[in-house]
Design a protein that fits this description.
The structure holds two protein chains of two kinds. By secondary structure, chain A is mostly helical. Chain A is built from 14 helices and no strands. Chain B is globular, with a radius of gyration of 25 Å. In chain B, about 40% of the residues are buried. The chains are: A mainly alpha, B mainly alpha.
Chain lengths: ~280, ~300
């Protein structure tokens, strides 16, 4: 029996180590590609480390006029930050109203919100494009940001969260004469940091990595996000491969840093958004 | 109780102060486009988003008769047949492995979860330019070279269709960690006394998993399966980035959204057909999503 258990442990460790190597390999390849010269990447001889470290790729990425990487980084940052804040404020408030304010048609409104969860946003990109283009928002930050601010799932999750918020605290605030507004901002919000962090990190990652919508809306180079700039590099010109890797490394760096420091909230965000029952 | 403390008059006003901004946006950016799209789908609309001529159901007939549209559904079926079972099995396996390990558990969890922070574009780039580049220097070909196999042109041939391996493995790497987290959360909810009882009965390894863990994971498994299916239906990013080169996409391996993208926003700019296609796909996905909520509710009841 002990023998058997040891065999299981050995198998488990073997699988974990193989898995670790396979899952980290792409990151290693990205780093190696970003710091190699073009010639070393193309050579048939395999090098684990670049024979000569090429930091010039970094300057080359930002110096390339055809793909404005600096502008793309700025666009992505503005979009991800405003969408994260916007979703937290809009869905937080809506979730609170739905959970707490006893309006007569509250259930009907809630139903109209949750039914949209059946339709993923990606499937309706053609209708959304039609609307945004008739508003004249093609290739603008408005067109990239605003349609993504209204996330039914976030509102749904905030409502569930506020339903479980201890009512006694809010009642005490009401007795002190605070309005709904005052209660929400001064009592409820300061005690919802963890939940907001979970929803916020997931929103930020989704926004930073979004592809289809920015592809459809960002039609001019100055409205490209990081993902679109990378994709344009990747699908159009393929001669400067090491520069391409460096650009990709720059693109994932903010999220990798975020991952290191905020992993706890990302995990909670995944748990909440993955299974929303 | 809270309502009574604040007087009835204020309730309507405050509800709309809190919910109004979100709800107005939802109506404008979800309901209006979908409604417009349904309307547009009955009209001719080339190069314009305003309807020109009423054509009834002709756009729907066009779409359903279009070989390329049906091929896109077939592409989805093939893709789902690859990606759903492999992701399910691998994320369950990694979750069980990580859950059982006490030493360095946080490290292993982070390793498998890390790709979740990565975008499909970046993954497509690494897969296309490094791992599955058709050259001798590509990692896959270098590894095959060690055992004497000559380089495989992974993406430039369709027979055999090696591109499926490239596409499926990229998504697998990106999403296994996400579903592993869902399985880990479900594993933590399994009552410890069940394992104790099993240990007293002398159950070991596979038996414990088969008779104790697996039944407890059923609701989570149903949710994961349907999420995988819905997400596979929306696949776009990795297909677009791995398969298109020099600005053009090959005629094969176009899943529904890629097909729709080229119909509505390609050179044709056919928004009538595009809208009809969007309506058909929306109905299809809504049916699956409805099944999901039904099944989850059933699963959650016991």
């Amino acid at each position: 029996m002990l023998h058997e258990r040891r065999r299981y442990a050995l198998l488990r460790w073997a699988l974990l180590l193989v898995g670790t190597v396979l899952f980290l390999l792409p990151f290693y390849l990205l780093l190696r590609g970003a710091l190699s010269t073009e010639a070393d990447l193309a050579s048939a001889e395999w090098h684990w480390l670049p024979p000569s470290w090429e930091w010039g790729n970094l300057a080359a990425v930002f110096g390339d006029r055809t793909v404005p990487m600096g502008r793309a980084l700025l666009n992505s940052t503005v979009i991800a930050v405003t969408q994260t804040i916007g979703v937290l404020v809009l869905s937080g408030m809506a979730g609170y109203g739905l959970a707490r304010i006893p309006y007569r048609w509250s259930n009907a409104v809630f139903w109209l919100i949750t039914i949209t969860l059946l339709i993923p946003a990606a499937v309706t990109f053609v209708p959304s494009f039609v609307l945004v283009s008739s508003l004249g928002w093609i290739s603008t930050l408005r067109g990239l940001i605003i349609p993504g601010l209204f996330q039914a799932l976030a509102t749904f999750l905030f409502r569930q969260f506020f339903l479980s918020f201890p009512k006694e605290i809010e009642e005490a605030a009401a007795l002190d004469g605070l309005s709904w507004w005052g209660t929400f901002w001064r009592v409820v919000v300061p005690n919802s940091g963890g939940f907001a962090a979970a929803i916020g990190t997931i929103t930020f990652i989704g926004s930073w990595n979004a592809f289809l919508w920015p592809l459809v809306i960002g039609r001019t180079p100055d409205s490209w996000t990081v993902q679109i700039a990378l994709s344009t590099y990747l699908t159009a010109q393929t001669s400067q491969i090491s520069q391409l890797f460096m650009a990709a490394l720059i693109a994932i760096l903010p999220l990798l840093l975020m991952f290191l420091f905020l992993q706890r909230w990302i995990v909670q965000g995944v748990e909440r958004t993955g299974i929303s029952d | 109780m809270l309502g009574r403390l604040r007087g009835r008059q204020d309730v309507n006003l405050w509800f709309w102060v809190f919910v109004g901004p979100f709800f107005a946006g939802l109506v404008l950016f979800i309901y209006v486009p979908i409604g417009w799209s349904v309307y547009l789908s009955f009209f001719e609309a080339y190069n314009t988003v305003t309807p020109t001529e009423f054509v009834g159901l002709a756009n729907y007939r066009d779409m359903l008769a279009d070989r390329a549209f049906r091929d896109s559904l077939l592409t989805f079926v093939v893709f789902a047949a690859f990606i759903v079972p492999t992701t399910f099995a691998l994320s369950l396996l990694t979750a069980v492995l990580v859950a059982r390990t006490r030493l360095m558990q946080a490290f292993f969890r982070s390793v498998f979860f890390l790709p979740v922070a990565c975008s499909y574009v970046v993954a497509a780039l690494i897969w296309k330019m490094s791992i599955f580049s058709g050259m001798r220097s590509g990692v896959a070909n270098a590894a095959l070279g060690l055992v004497g196999v000559s380089p495989v042109p992974w993406l430039s041939i369709t027979d055999p269709p090696w591109y499926w391996l490239v596409i499926v493995s990229a998504r697998l790497w990106l999403q296994v960690g996400f579903y592993m987290i869902l399985f880990l959360a479900a594993l933590q909810r399994v009552p410890a006394n069940l394992y104790e009882a099993a240990a007293i009965d002398g159950a070991e390894g596979w038996q414990v998993f088969r008779h104790i863990t697996w039944p407890q994971l059923l609701p989570a498994s149903t949710a994961v399966l349907l999420l995988l299916l819905i997400n596979a239906f929306q696949a776009f990013d990795e297909f677009y980035n791995i398969l298109s080169s020099f600005g053009s996409y090959p005629p094969y391996a176009r899943p529904p959204l890629v097909y729709l993208y080229y119909t509505a926003l390609g050179s044709g700019q056919n928004f009538g057909d595009g809208s009809a296609g969007a309506v058909i796909l929306t109905v299809m996905i809504a049916v699956v999503a409805l099944a999901q909520t039904r099944l989850l509710r059933l699963g959650g009841r016991d």
